[in-house]
Amino acid sequence: MDTSVTSESDLVSLLSTVEGRQKFGKRLLRNLRTAGLEDDPRVIGDTIQRETLEAASEEAIKHFMELVRRKLGSGNALTSLFGPDLRSVEFIWNHDREAEESEREEDEWTPLLEKAREADGPVVETVTVSSLDGVSDIEVPQEAASRVAIPVMAGGRSVGFLAVIYSPPKEFTLGEARVLKASAFVLGQTVLEIAGQNETRGVLYAMIQSLAGALDARDSYTRGHSDRVAMYAMALANEMSDQPEEDLAEGFRDRLRLAALLHDIGKIGIRDDVLLKPGSLTNEEYGTIKKHPVLGAEIIKVSGALDHVIPGILYHHERHDGSGYPVGLKGDEIPLVARIIGLADAFDAMTTDRVHRPGMSHAEAIEVIERSSGSHFNPDAVELLLRAHRKGILTAVRVADAATSEGVPVEEEGSLIEQAHPGLADSVPALPAVVGRLNSMVRDPDCGAGDIATVLSTDEGMASRVLKFANSAFYALPGRVGTISLAITILGLNTLRNLVIGAALADMTRSLAGSAREAEILWDHAVAVGVWCRCLARKFGSADPEEAFTAGLLHDIGKGIILRSLPESRQSVRERLLRPEDTRTFEIETVGFDHSQIGAWAAAKWRLPVSLGRTVRWHHEPGGAAGEGSEIEKLVTVVHLANVLAWGGDAEPVVLSQLLAEKADFDILRKTPVRDVTVIEELLPAVVHGRQLARELLSGQARQKVG
Fold first, then answer.
1. How far is the C-alpha of 526 from the C-alpha of 549, rounded, in Å?
2. What topology does CATH give the domain 218-407?
3. Which residues pair with 418 in a beta bridge?
4. CATH class (in words) of the domain with range 11-195
5. Whole-angstrom Cα distance, residue 667 to residue 499?
6. β partners of residue 165
7. Which residues, 6+ apart, have CB-to-CB distance to 486 below 8 Å?
């Protein structure tokens, strides 16, 4: 029988034959170990046990379902799989199930699965059940239960759903959500591997994030430890920009990031009663803990694709004076990545609250580390830590991590930014007073055109620019506009407000950047995004074109603020921030927050319309705008697509179409025809012409319309 798999494979088609289940099961078992979900030391460390499981790989799916149930910590739970068409993969756990019973289950689950199809995380509902469908040893009386479903994604498409039902109902914790996400990812990764599409960089990074998250979920007081160590390590690497490059050009940053995320993965093989022991460890227990670097290296070898990160994992507990483990390397014998990770690991351990002691302050930890420079820690690495500490970057990492791990609402992110960077608000230039007054008046239903004109007349420069804008070729209004009142009448209050904001942003961007060249790069991209937004909104009627234009101008304002906060001496960092790509991860490493968070904070400070602030916040993560209201969601969609298209510069339509396929959010892209080359070909002439007119308009050199 031919069991080859195409790129259209899903959970149902893969598991519909014995051969398919064997092939899928063998891959799944390997991925469970690599992703850190299979934490039974007998399964990870015992070759015979592994081979036994692989020989019975058709049972691997049942093993996976039981593993997920156990990870979620509930005896009264049933795990199920569904295909992308919502069909139940019932043969996985019950070969005797009647077709009628299976169809009934599918009907019951359909509403929740439809919701999960649009989500990027677990979706939960409460239902009434009489038993946990078909599981004879778990009988439950008629009562409420919780159902949770999460999509299984492979290569940007849904290949099925992972679903769990609990009785009695419960709320899902962050750790349980992480387990569900990691489990769904491993299923999707397995589908992708069998389809021969597993070598992409994004898949590798996602696997590592799932693996690290699964480890952190085991231990409540170190949750987020792997992410923080990675951010601290990258913060130290950023301080190396003025030093000889050594092997930095050979993928040093990538190796450092991956090794930092995975540095403790060997602890998966440590028993809970040792790893999570609240009191002091015995000598024997400490000896067990000390095995985790070697266990980690062995686990990573299984993947066959991550050998380059093993030195950072294996040697991160070596000490400068040779007193570390597992080998006892000394000084420069310790690889550079391991020196940095070891210091970042120690710093996070010192500053994290534990059951038996509170965490130190950053200043206290720095003092301890300075005393150990030259003994425990490499002196050069300590100097990097001191530099990052003096700049406040280490504090930003901790605050940013708290915002992420505790699910801080977007409304509260601003206070965290100010906590991490107390002087930042004072360094951000103010918008003209007329912008704030105008924004308030537009929201006032009793405010008329005459009132607006009076306010604008208090700023002669702005009033003059408004008239120039109204008479420019960019707006192409009929007839000559000679007064502010007429401009308001023709343009409308919202368009006028957005126009004034755009003019203020043009001036502000120039003041934020450190040089004329930086200002030109930032502003050129902002204008390109704004014009793409305007054209997309006009084409599809999905948002107000002028508000979309303003949102496009504003979307990267946080990047200018980050540049303003960095000393000009950090040229390599500044150059990286100006690249036409998503630099958010690098920004978090550098200042603790990304430009979308800082831009939204600034928009709130300037009292700009909420719709603009929310669009800035979510333009890289459009799923985050869910629940913000349809108008904001539409605006976010337009800016997200326009931003990716603008990265392509003057590329041909086919290149822009491919860029969208690679970089745009999959759920956004599948709902819009923008990716179609013919649509881009139709829009491109208007974008190119509009970009030129907008540059002239906002530079104060607006071309007057002819006729």
1. 9
2. Hypothetical protein af1432 (1.10.3210)
3. none
4. alpha beta
5. 31
6. 78, 147
7. none
